[in-house]
Specification:
mainly alpha
Length: 271
């Protein structure tokens, strides 16, 4: 079994170097809110390390069939987010904006493609998590899809998205009484997120949609697999409220006009 971990470590190092090389080679940098040029797809590290962790979760003695679902979530939502990062335009925002373009103008934006693709993946993951029970399938689909979009919406300032990911994951672990369906995969994903958070909080790199979309999907899948029904309903309600609010007002403005939220936000990263 030791050789499996050795090979995994080598693969992880190769992936790390390839991602670092690609960021430099293709100039994947943009201005942050302080007008500084920084890499904007650091979430690729989370996707790559998380995928390796999910594979370990499938094939090691501590493995679980559910780790396959994490692998699908990581690659599926990660690729969709990456496409939006590289080819997307920020001239259109929100579900309403993207689908207005699609329905009224016949233009498929990368944001709409991400929403549609993420919805399809969420339906599949929810089916597997729910065992095909119709009402639970519908609830799990909502939780996974909206969790991905919620974490995505919060990724407007350093530290916010990863902080909320860990708050959500902590709640999921507590509701599951510490018994997770795919502990190896979750542990590796969380570890990768902690490392990336070092750069994200300091404004040295951005998660990008590839990171926030993926972390949200992981959070949603964990809730779908391990949270009780009341927990899923509560999570779905929170995600729905945040998504509806974001269609009408700015989440950043809400935070900046609320002293308590501003104080918490100021501790999450550079401002």
């Amino acid at each position: 079994m030791l050789y499996v971990y050795a090979i995994t470590a080598v693969i992880a190092l190769v992936c790390h170097e390839l991602i670092s090389l690609a960021i430099r080679r293709f100039g994947w940098q943009k201005e942050n809110f302080r007008k500084e040029k920084i890499p904007y797809v650091h979430g690729l590290y989370i996707v790559s390390y998380g995928a390796i962790g999910a594979i370990l979760g499938i094939y090691t003695r501590y493995g679980s069939h559910d780790a396959q679902l994490y692998l699908i979530a990581l690659l599926g939502f990660g690729i969709l987010g990456f496409i939006d990062d590289i080819f997307g335009s920020r001239n259109v925002g929100g579900f309403r904006g993207h689908f207005k373009k699609l329905l009224l103008e016949g233009k498929l934006t990368t944001g709409a493609a991400k929403a549609l693709g993420g919805g399809i993946i969420a339906v599949y993951l929810a089916y597997q998590a729910s065992g095909g029970r119709i009402w639970m399938w519908a609830l799990d689909t909502i939780v996974i899809a909206l969790a991905a979009n919620t974490i995505n919406l919060l990724d407007l300032r350093p530290g916010r998205a990863i902080f909320m990911f860990f708050v959500g994951m902590a709640a999921a672990v507590i509701m599951a009484w510490g018994s997770l369906s795919a502990p190896v995969a979750v542990a590796v994903i969380a570890s990768a997120a902690i490392v990336v958070a070092y750069y994200d909080r300091r404004g040295l790199a951005m998660l990008g949609d590839v990171g926030s979309n993926t972390l949200g999907a992981v959070l949603g899948l964990t809730l779908a697999l391990d949270a009780p029904v009341i927990g899923k309903l509560a999570a779905a309600a929170v995600f729905i409220v945040i998504n509806l609010f974001s269609e009408r007002r700015s989440i950043s403005e809400l935070i900046e006009h609320n002293p308590v939220l501003t104080r918490i936000d100021s501790k999450l990263g550079v401002r």
